[in-house]
Structure formats: C-alpha cells, structure tokens
Amino acid sequence: MTSPLYPPKPRPGDRVAVLSPAAGLPEIFPRPFDLGLRRLTEEFGLLPVEYPTTRRMGCTPQERAADLHAAFADPTVRAVVASIGGDDQITVLPHLDADLIRANPKPFFGYSDNTNLLAYLRELGIVGFHGGSVMVQLGRPGALHPVTADSLRAALFTPGPYELTEPVEFNDIERDWQDPAGLDTPPGMQPAPGWTWHRPDRVVEGPSWGGNLEILGWLMMADRAVAAPETYRGGVLFLETSEELPSADEVFRTLRNMGERGLLAQFPALLMGRAKAWSFGAPNGPEQREAYRTAQREAVLRVLAVYAPDTMAVFDVDLGHTDPQVVIPYGGTVRVDGPARRITVTY
C-alpha cells in the first residue's frame, strides 16, 4: 500500500463544512447541534458552513452525496465534520465521486455510522479522523471534556505524533436531549480503570483500519470499502461498539467472521474501545455495565486465541461511544508500544 495522504489541516479562521451524511438529527435535536457549532467557532476558531441536508431528516443518499461533493470541491472549505452518526450511510457510498474526492482531499471527522465514509476514504488513500462529532463531543453538556478537547484540537490543527493517555474518569450514560436543562451541567463521571494489555511483548507501528464493529460487519456483507485482507498486513486494528449494545455473542460472531475472511491475522495489534454499556433502551446499573464490558472483552480474547493468537491487544481505550473520546487517524500511523505501555497516533 502506498503511503497514506494526510490532507492539509485547517487553521483558526477557516471555513469547515458541517454535514449530516448519516442522519439529519440536527432537525430533531437542534440544541446540542447549535451548542456544538458555537463551540466550534468560539473554542476552535473555525467557521462552520451548513449544507441543504445538514438539518433535514429523510434526505436521499443522492442528496447527502451531493453535499459531500460540494464540500470537498469547495476550495474555501478546509475540513468536513459530521453532525452525528446514523444507520444508513452505507447507501451513500455508491453515489460518491471517487475522482472528485481524491482530487480534493480534506480532513473528515466522524465516527459510528461515519465508519462507512472513513473506510471509503482510506481506500482512496486519504487519512480520515475517527471521532469528534458536532452533536455529541462538541455538544457535550456543560463543557467539552478536557481529554476530548485536547485530542480534537491536535487532530484538527497539529500534524505529527500525539501520545494517548489513560483517562482517570469516564462516562457512558447519556442525557435526554429533549430535556431543556439537559445541556446545562457536565455529566457525572466515574473512575476509569486503566488500559488492559494482552501480549504486550512488542512494538507495532502501522496504518490503522477499523472503527465501529457493527458498521464493519455491514460493509463486509455489502462488500464495500473493505479491501483484500493482505492489504492490511502489519497495520493496527481499532474497534468499538455502539449504543445499541451488541451482545458478547454478536461481537464474537462478527470477529469470528472477520477471522474466517483472513482479516484478523493481518493485524499484529488491536485497540479495543471501552464498551458503552448503557442506553435509553437498556439503562443498566453499575454491576450490569461492568458485566457487559467483561463479557465483551472475553469474547474478543476468545476470537483472538483462534484467529490471531500472537496479536497484541489493548482494551478500554476511549476511542468510541464513551466519554471522553480520543481521535484516531483512520489510515494514519498508530504506534502501540507494548513494553512501554504507550500508544501514539500521528495526526
């Protein structure tokens, strides 16, 4: 694989596109969206630009693709940031103009359903950024978490290596966006167990691939934005699960199928995101949440034992649906130093 292309970074004062390529949820929940836009301007110094589908639910895949094309083609727009995720961005991919996007590379920020577009950009040789949505991270109640803010700022503006640190606190309980007071105070946090290392006997450095596990399963079923297994040889796999709380059995089966495809064995290192274990549909208590995370970790280890027994793994990295969230360069360089217990990404 050729060296990945890091698109030029924006500078304070630049225009950035804010799009909804997954779902137009800003139409339904304008308050966290507007809060995120205000912070993008006031705390990061960027000028958000909205498009026809940004605040509109039910837009067709063709309409969302057209907004992506407009944003990438506009020379005055220096980055693209997703409002939030969704569940059908996979239907947008066939309508994208690969030549247009390849000719106008820009940093794209998003996660969850935006794994679709991140994987697509990686296949074009363009580094994207897994994390940093407007409504969730920028629209966090009370204030941005300092860990999130520092990582996002570095990913936006500063090229070069950035060392991830183990957070001392985390949260996975959401606020009700319909509650007028829901955005006024920061969420309650709980002590964060440190990273858990498995086979930390080597140093692995390579381009990353992965994202949301459920979305990767859909991409593989549709045979989109997933290259031949050997394409990923020597890279770093990173995975996380969503607020839909897939069971340990589902996680096991998806990873097993990736193993059968020959994917897992290509990655000598895996970063596994801290599992979100609470949702409005499953408001689990502390013991239930801990049991859920433990079961997921054990499921991942069972799969690795069969399909990638020599792979080094790090669990409970805050790279997904929990708070705080660190940004991972998608297709960019990640270094996992087992003996030193250090993780460094290149923004």
Automatic annotation (TrEMBL):
The keyword Hydrolase applies. Residues 205-336 form the LD-carboxypeptidase C-terminal domain. Keywords: Hydrolase. The keyword Lipoprotein does not apply. Gene3D superfamilies: Class I glutamine amidotransferase-like, LD-carboxypeptidase A C-terminal domain-like. Pfam families: Peptidase_S66, Peptidase_S66C. It comes from the Bacteria. This is S66 peptidase family protein. It comes from Kitasatospora paranensis. The lineage of its organism: Bacteria, Bacillati, Actinomycetota, Actinomycetes, Kitasatosporales.
